[in-house]
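[agent] plan:
  1. take the single chain provided in the ticket
  2. run structure prediction with default settings
  3. attach structure tokens to the ticket
  4. add a short note for the reviewer (M.T.)
[agent] executing step 1
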Amino acid sequence: MLSMDKNVFLRPLNPFMIKLFLFVFLLSGLMHVNAQSVKQATAKDPHAGHDHAKIPEIKTDDALGLKESEFDFNKIPQSKPVYHYFEIINKGTPPLTLDNVTASCGCTTPEWSKEPIAPGQTAKIKVGFNAATEGPFEKPITITYNGNYTKQIKIKGHVWKAPAGAAPANASVQFLKQQLQ
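[agent] step 2 finished; step 3 output follows
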């Protein structure tokens, strides 16, 4: 059986042990406080305390005005190109320059003039779409202007499957061809 000295609690404590005990006690208290602050921050923002890459903000200004920012082609046939013109207006005082117009995929083709647009004047961006697959679509097009400003336009619609080949043979046309020979 272990014998325990009855005066163990009455002896003076080792100064090193006192410092070690205080250090561990303070460290655990700090960890508890830090855990609580992270918990409160994540309740407000689920990404707080994490090292997520920042999403760059898109810079915009009011110089580029759009008559419409979205166009719905509705139902269009597969593999038949369709086009829409988006009209833009320079609402600013300096000339407006369209630096680039980019689509999200190769089936969408924007065309625009590189000439500056004078204040109050309009220009058009031609957007072509040629669907390879049937079904609904939605394609964003990003306009970069005046150096580093951007705005987005969008086309959407539904592509229906076109017939596999040319139009079916017409018996009347065949009869006329035979008559002419």
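[agent] step 4 note for reviewer: The longest strand covers residues 149-160.
[agent] ticket updated
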